[in-house]
Specification:
2 copies of one chain form a homodimer. With 402 residues, chain A is of the alpha/beta class. Helix content of chain A is 40%, strand content 13%. The first copy, chain A, has a 7-stranded mixed beta sheet, with helices on both faces. Chain A has a 4-stranded antiparallel beta sheet with strand order 11-12-15-14. In chain A, helix 3 runs parallel beside helix 9, helix 4 runs parallel beside helix 5 and helix 6 packs parallel to helix 7. In chain A, 54% of the residues are buried. Chains A and B meet through helix 1, helix 2, helix 4, helix 8 and helix 9 of A and helix 1, helix 2, helix 4, helix 8 and helix 9 of B.
């Protein structure tokens, strides 16, 4: 047999492990609520668009070219204006295969091994792992309840400047920050733009949760305060419609977008999904989002109730104001990497905090996603988790019997 | 304004040019025949599957995990057995976003700047440009009517071995080779496997046109003769169903596939397209392919007729036995890079041969794709091309008036 292991370069990524199905209590991954997938109206939208424009599937890029299906870009342009106060034309939009491709494309365009990037110190695990893989030096900025600590950011930028290090970008998830769930204030958004201009460092604004604030309107995007082309903005339909539809988008000034586009070498993202979304969204987006937010809020309530019931004051967290996850601080004697391993054996999948932070601040934290499990599974899974914690780490002292 | 140009690393790719629509006579790109897109049965398939399994769209990877939608992998496994004599289980298949992603993934897994790769000396432009971008040393093997010159390949491998250079893989499009349209004989397929084992060099078999032979069955894939895990095989639905559906696949021994999978960082390819294809293909694939082949054969006949009519003996080509393109050798005084530029001004897009060969063998050749233009457009476009050639290069001496 051919021996691949001795053949590959020594820094090749290690092998994937065969997938064996989901864990019974799945609190990881940005999965969404099964029952909220708008099957009927998606079907109607597809029926309509495929009969009308199906023949265009014969062309790579349909009749829209490499930036993605034009009616979808037109919807995104309108929607960003309405919900995020962003002014961008369809010419400044690139449809991508989910916001993960957006991350990869921006990274490929900007980064090389040894580069420096500024990020919120607790952050999306997929961002952290990508930057690690490239060999980027990540500098973490602490988070406050209203977003990044701007003073710390300014000091960091000053100190880097003195060392003649120019970071490649400031990466931020300002709205329902992953994993902390915080929302950056308008003042901080404006301050961030000012710093970006002052130090001439672009901002990469990852806004894939912004549609999911439960009870109020989202603040304007950082990008909306950008008059000088400093902000690269990405969004996604994964969280608002369905994760398995791999459709996200990037918007930036054409001078930037035209440098990112050549790295997209896949001849366009799936067109059927783009067509379906364009047709669906122009009629149903707002009403669908309302229903989805309600469902997610119920699940958020359910996980908070379960945490309170089984962990009591042992679990320190802020109640989610939107999104699909809660970030929980456990006592210092709980090693959450070990908790992760033990829980998985009992069918409970969680994100250990050290994968979601670039320093030790996450060592006693966990992230629990509540979008996909049912309310019953949420209750049962959190209970099992509390029982493991009690057995292994002696906390909580008591677990309520439901 | 932020100045991206002074900010990016010096080896960043140059900017994309804004897309302005297709040329009137579009003989480039692997587009397919508009009228052959099976709209009605695609719609029926989607309706059925979305009502049945639409809720699974709430999960990244549906219920199938990171290798792609299981029923689609099951169909591919069956189809590869039936049509290409390949034995692979669904566990040895990875669904990707078109065979272009397959190329990128295999390249990322195997290649670094300075590596050596063996390819047919006239080859797919997208493969050549990818390898150039990585900085790979390409060694070209001449093509004969029945595929790669195996003696030349063996000599090349011997000579590299003496220099202690181990190529990373042998890349081949054995069936309807792009651009030459040749089909590798069974004897050469077997010989290739022998050489692969002897020199311990994997083969990357790109088989995306294999379904499109007009009048006879395809030969077994090279992969079908591989008992020792030397062959990585990729295929696609772009050519057989629709290019804008971005769905292709890779199959290899799990020891190899498990090393490729970690480079797929997009959380799966579009699921709606995978579900639609799985449902469509299990009922309609064979009948659809028959219809498509007939339509493409008509267009192949049309372009050959047009070439004969307007270019006469000036255009030297082999009549396509399948696929969507014809490779044409023009007299030595025709600089086809210049022809490409002139033709584009007149609304005729062609592939100049030098982008489809790694040495000067393509300098007087052009590739014309005939899948997308109508029969009328084929005739008119080839006529305009002949007129440009006559005016610029003095050939053909006379152009027939139709």
């Amino acid at each position: 047999m051919f021996n691949i292991n001795s053949f590959l370069h020594s820094d090749a990524l290690g092998p994937a492990i065969e997938w064996k199905g989901y864990p019974k209590f799945n609190f990881i991954g940005g999965h969404n609520d099964n029952e909220s997938i708008p099957i009927t109206s998606l079907k109607e939208s597809i029926d309509k668009i495929i009969l009308k424009e199906g023949k265009t599937l014969a062309k790579y890029g349909l009749e829209s070219g490499p930036q993605g299906y034009l009616p979808l870009r037109q919807f995104i342009s309108k929607q960003l204006k309405k919900s995020a106060s962003i002014n961008c034309s369809e010419k400044e939009l690139l449809v991508v295969s989910g916001s993960l491709q957006a991350l990869d494309l921006v990274n490929q365009t900007f980064l090389k091994k040894g580069d420096t990037v500024i990020i919120e110190e607790e952050n999306y695990g997929g961002t952290i792992s990508r930057l690690r893989r490239i060999g980027v030096n990540m500098i973490g900025i602490p988070l406050e309840k209203d977003g990044m600590n701007i003073e710390a950011l300014e000091q960091t930028l000053e100190s880097l400047k003195k060392k003649k290090i120019r970071p490649r970008f400031i990466y931020t998830i300002p709205t329902i920050q992953n994993p902390t769930g915080t929302i950056m204030s308008v003042d901080k958004r404006k301050a961030l733009i000012k710093l970006s201009k002052k130090f001439e460092i672009p901002i990469f604004e990852d806004d894939c949760y912004a549609d999911l604030i439960f009870d109020k309107e989202r603040p304007p995007a950082i990008k909306s305060y950008d008059n000088d082309g400093y902000v690269i903005y990405c969004g996604s339909f994964s969280k608002s419609i369905a994760p398995a539809l791999r459709v996200g988008y990037l918007t930036a000034d054409w001078s930037i977008l035209s440098r990112i586009l050549p790295y997209k070498t896949d001849a366009g993202s799936g067109s059927l999904e783009q067509m379906a979304l364009a047709e669906f969204c122009k009629i149903n987006f707002d009403s669908h989002i309302k229903i989805l937010r309600n469902e997610l809020k119920k699940k958020s309530d359910a996980i908070c109730n379960a945490l309170d019931k089984y962990f009591g004051s042992t679990a320190d967290y802020n109640k989610p104001v939107g999104g699909i996850f809660v970030w929980i601080n456990l006592p210092n004697n709980v090693d959450t990497s070990r908790l992760y391993e033990l829980a998985l054996k009992d069918g409970v999948a969680i994100n250990p905090g050290n994968e979601w932070s670039i320093n030790s601040s996450g060592d006693h934290k966990i992230r629990l996603c509540f979008g996909n499990p049912s309310i019953e599974e949420i209750d049962e899974g959190v209970k099992i988790l509390a029982e493991i914690c009690q057995k292994e780490f002696g906390i909580p002292l008591q677990i309520a019997n439901s």
